[in-house]
Structures are given as structure tokens and as C-alpha cells.
Fold this protein.
Amino acid sequence: MLKFKMVFCLLQSLLMIVSSFSVYDSNFKMFVDRAGLGLTSEKDFGFDRAGAEMFEISEEEKEECRRWFNENILTDKNPAYDFTAGGKSFRKNLSDWEINILPESAQAGKYRNGKT
């Protein structure tokens, strides 16, 4: 059985190589691609339904995001981001920077309260 699968994989690979040398929009390329994929592809597949409630963000998830943002972005101790200016890494040279974290704007507060 293993040799049988190996032969099919080899044949599929050869068909894909031949296809790569064909004209992109040619019927021959489509025929060869379909033949190659048809050797090993699944023909009977389906999709499960997913409702909006499955993707709803819980209050716990929102709170976890806020906590992470406050601890890793709005910080001057160990920020989650880094960049290089003048050949110096920001995170490695925090003492060289004057960092001011300003209060949240009215627009940011609007988005934070679920208006997005």
C-alpha cells in the first residue's frame, strides 16, 4: 500500500511540475492541475455552520486585553514593543528616553466602551 501511495505522490508531483511550465491561463494547465489534485484530494467535504455568538468577545476576554495593554503598552518599565533610533535599541536604553503617558482621549474612550 505504501508503494501505491508513493507512486501517486510521484505522479502528482510530476503533473504539478509540468503544469508550472505551462501558460498560466491555458486549458492545459487547468487540466493538469485538476488531474494532479484529483489524485489525492478529498472530494466529499463540508463546512460546519458558525453563528455570530461563537465569535462574541466575552467581558473576561476584554478585561484580559485591557490588562495586557496597560501592563505592556502603557508602561515605561518593560514595553512589549521595541525600535531602534540612532543605532540604539529603545527597550535596552529606556533610561535615555523621557516617557510621558498621557490620559486617554475622548475618542479612545468612545472606542474602549464598545463602539467599534
